[in-house]
Amino acid sequence: MKVKSSFFRLLNLILLLAICSCSLGATEESFSFVKGHADTIRDSPNNESFDSAISLNILGETEIIDGFPDITECGIDCIGDFSNPEDWDVDSETWMQEKALEGGYNERAIISQFRADVKIWYHTLFDVAKSVGGKRLKEKHLRKLEKVQNFLKRWFLTLAFIPLRCVTKDNASVKSKDHPDYQQMVDFPYPLASALSHGQRTVFKSQGITEKMLYNLLLSGNYKKSPDIDYIRSFSSHGVSEEGEGLQEDKLRFGVLNTLKGSNRGVDIPLGGVGNQNEMGHFIGPEGQSYGRFSPKHRGKYQLGHVCITIGRFNGFAGVLMGVESAAPRKVTPFREGRKHHTWQSGMKDETKDRSCTGGQKWQALLGDKAPAHYGGLIIQINANKFSKLQELFEIILNKSQEEQEEIFKELLRRNATEAQAYLKQLPDLGHLFEGMSKTPSRAFLLEE
After folding, report:
1. In a domain, 198, yes or no
2. DSSP conformation class of 134
3. Is 236:308 a contact under the CB 8 Å cutoff?
4. Does 201 fall in a domain?
């Protein structure tokens, strides 16, 4: 018996060594995916498609690579195929993407989160339902929902048309050019859907138009008409101030002062799409509320999706700061893990390790020093000429049929800023809008020191 027992122990040891050897071989292949650019993987003769490159990393799922990714760009090819209808589905599992672990990263996690961003925002922009769980929606709910969705569509169209630009160091674009942290803005290099999904805010700087004109156009579609989908927020932890010839984003200690001036606004949105399920299995209402399957009453404390807005006017130009938060003030995110109660105290804490509004990670946790800066990292610059063209762009796109709009936004959400602008430019009825628009460098700062 002892001989037989020893034999089986030896056999088990041999099998274990064989398994480890196979795993190490897979890990070496996984390293090539994690360490390299997505383009390198797609073009590799050992990978027939980008999807196979993603599956290649399954065995390396738990490995950690020191530092953060060396990717400098990710667009429509990088995030993989969306050709199957189920690729666009949103359910309670969608919010639980693979995470990059602290101190390292997994490029498959990055792609997983970008793909979730795309489909979550697609459904947010287009889903309509006459009932949510046990709640029958009234016409007033549906009218407001349409206005909120059109606001979000105008936001994404602005990011694509201008387009959205970024820097990786705090407020680096407004520093003097001889400052060691100065960076020139470049086109946002990741899918547009991700720009609103991982914690940072967009700084809109306008010249020749007032902050109210820009605010009204984005939220109501008419720069002369005040929106009716927003409300005054009691507190905001972020604001904008004048710095040189630009606007810098600030962390506010006394955000309530902006409320007294009417500068803090908020809009509740149905993040994930009306009628779909959030992570807790609740059904998403028209303002992000959580509904049970049979009850007409929403689960009061749970809400997902809120746009925080701060507006201000300065010498010669105006500013609007907008960002998507995971929950409205005094509400709780409907996540199974990492649930957050949104209070004024939470806004004063370091939230870079919290879950993002789409269930993934904040930019710094996901991409490290290759991420857009926490303050002043995402920038839109609008002058009177571009403002006029934006009005025409909104009118053209939002007057198209539902099917045409869905096709356009499926393209825009997956593309980075350079690709998104190019896509709009090639549409037959939009080419004239780009005449006379200047072009600045699109990328290449992300690896600069």
Report:
1. yes
2. T
3. yes
4. yes
Would you say residue 262 lies in a domain?
A: yes
Preceding omega of 270 cis (within 30 degrees of 0): no
Q: Tell which phi-psi region holds residue 67, choosing left (phi > 0), alpha (psi between -120 and 50) or beta.
A: left
Compute how many other C-beta atoms are within 10 angstroms of the C-beta atom of residue 63. 15
- Both tokens of 387, joined, read 């403002």
Can you read off the two tokens belonging to residue 417? 């800023």
Is 141 found in the same domain as 55? Answer: no
Query: Which of 43, 63, 83 is a domain's end point?
Result: 63
- Contact between residue 391 and residue 143 where contact means Cβ atoms under 8 Å apart: no
**178 and 37 share one domain:** no
CA torsion 243-248-251-256 (nearest 10°) is 80
User: 402-414 and 107-126 are packed helices; what angle lies between their axes, rounded to 10 degrees?
Assistant: 160
- Alpha helices by DSSP H, listed for 60-191, are 107-126, 139-161
In angstroms and rounded to an integer, the radius of gyration of the C-alpha atoms of the chain is 23
For the entire predicted model, the pTM comes to 0.80
pLDDT tens, residue by residue, 412-437: 999 999 999 999 999 999 999 999 87
The domain in which residue 333 lies consists of 121-434
End position of a domain, from candidates 45, 63, 81: 63
- b vs e for 3-34, b when ≥16 Cβ sit within 10 Å of the residue's Cβ? eeeeeeeeeeeeeeeeeeeeeeeeeebbebbb
Q: State how far the Cα of 224 lies from the Cα of 210, in Å rounded to an integer.
A: 11
| pLDDT above 70 coverage of the chain, percent | 73
- Is residue 105 assigned to a domain? no
Contact between residue 255 and residue 245 where contact means Cβ atoms under 8 Å apart: no
93 contact partners, CB below 8 Å, separation of at least 6:
none
Structural element, H or E, at residue 291: strand 289-291
Are 15 and 139 contained in the same domain?
Answer: no
Least confident of 59-68, 80-89, 206-215, 313-322: 59-68
For residue range 323-369, list pLDDT tens digits in order.
Answer: 999 999 889 999 988 666 756 555 556 666 789 999 999 998 888 88
Pair type for strands 131-132 and 135-136:
antiparallel
Q: Which three-class secondary structure string do you get for 25-61? A: HHHHHHHHHHHCCHHHHHHCCCCCCHHHHHHHHHHHC
Say yes or no: 141 and 278 in one domain: yes
Query: Looking at the DSSP assignment, which residues form a beta bridge with residue 165?
Result: 187, 379
Instruction: Domain count for the chain, please give it.
Output: 2
Do 236 and 379 fall into the same domain? yes
β-bridge partners, 303? 289
Within this chain, do residues 264 and 409 fall inside the same structural domain, yes or no? yes
